[in-house]
């Protein structure tokens, strides 16, 4: 008997754009090595394995793998899996259908609100299970520029300098001056570890204030070559940690801030990530990530 799987394009409302995600629905009996091998077989930025919940109040236990490593938490797998499980529960809908999906991940419990729509992309938003926090120092701008094939003058804008924040896995956040510099960025593997470190999470999230749309606040690219991801079309976990960057440098005032991030445009997989940040008395109180997804394929694995 085969194991059901689905492919969704996440952080988009159009098939064949956004960030593709594989979700294996029938994952019971698979061991760690098999999950990692299946993720390598799909060769997408992430593959999710859905397991029965240990707590009857939860929707599922999930494990998330890149082609090379397991992750404790990731954003586009959370959005895509929540939307798929809502589709599994309600099927085709005649009108808007609200759903709550509760996923146990290695980082903890992640609660997702889903809105299914007839003949349209569904939307999911989840509460980030931990607030962003600093994750140590970065290297100097010259080494970072070399690792990205850029000039040192390309690094930084306004008061933004390279920083390192995390929600689960840490990311190196690299501000660049404009869209031209963002488009020219590319991993230089001979200089990568010198620029971003020798640990297993030396990923680079490169961003600028210039955007394609007036409705967006930033455009970004994310490179994670040591995790088997040359470039990621949309990175929800990085966007969650990016809330810490924006609050630190932009000094967010009290209230709820809606921040739209463009990603994947340079690689032809345009994605839109909605980041919400609640600030109370000068401190982050809550962070949410939202986006749409389209189901594009279903199949079976004979493993």
Automatic annotation (TrEMBL):
UniProt-listed InterPro entries: Phenazine_PhzF-like (IPR003719)
One Pfam family cited in the UniProt record for this chain: PhzC-PhzF
Gene Ontology terms, MF aspect: isomerase activity
Active site: 46
Gene3D superfamilies: Diaminopimelate Epimerase, Chain A, domain 1
Gene Ontology CC annotations of this record: cytoplasm
Family: Belongs to the PhzF family.
NCBIfam families, per database record: PhzF_family
Name under which the protein is recorded: Phenazine biosynthesis protein PhzF
Organism of derivation: Roseibium aquae
């Amino acid at each position: 008997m085969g194991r059901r799987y689905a492919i969704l394009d996440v952080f988009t409302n159009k098939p064949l754009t956004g960030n593709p995600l594989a979700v294996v629905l029938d994952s019971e009996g698979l061991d760690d090595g098999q999950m990692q091998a299946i993720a390598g077989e799909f060769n997408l930025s992430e593959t999710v394995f859905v397991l029965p919940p240990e707590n009857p109040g939860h929707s599922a236990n999930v494990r998330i793998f890149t082609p090379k490593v397991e992750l404790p938490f990731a954003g586009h797998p959370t959005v895509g899996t929540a939307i798929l499980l809502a589709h599994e529960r309600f099927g085709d809908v005649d009108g808007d259908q609200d759903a709550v999906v509760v996923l146990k991940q290695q980082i903890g419990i992640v609660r997702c609100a889903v809105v299914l729509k007839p003949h349209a992309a569904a939307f999911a938003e989840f509460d980030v299970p931990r607030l962003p926090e600093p994750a140590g120092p970065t290297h100097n701008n010259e080494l970072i520029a070399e690792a990205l094939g850029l000039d040192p003058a390309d690094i930084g804008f306004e008061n933004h300098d390279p920083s390192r924040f995390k929600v689960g896995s840490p990311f190196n956040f690299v501000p660049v001056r404009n869209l031209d510099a963002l488009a020219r960025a590319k991993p230089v593997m001979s200089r990568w570890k010198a620029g971003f470190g020798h640990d297993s999470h030396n990923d680079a999230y490169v961003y600028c204030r210039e955007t394609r749309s007036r409705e967006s606040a930033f455009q970004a690219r994310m490179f994670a070559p040591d995790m088997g991801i040359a470039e990621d079309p949309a990175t929800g976990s990085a966007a969650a940690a990016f809330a810490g960057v924006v609050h630190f440098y932009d000094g967010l005032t009290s209230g709820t801030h809606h921040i739209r991030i463009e990603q994947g445009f340079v690689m032809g997989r345009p994605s839109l990530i909605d980041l919400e940040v609640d600030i109370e008395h000068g401190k982050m109180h809550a962070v949410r990530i939202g986006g749409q997804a389209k189901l594009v394929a279903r199949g079976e694995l004979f493993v």
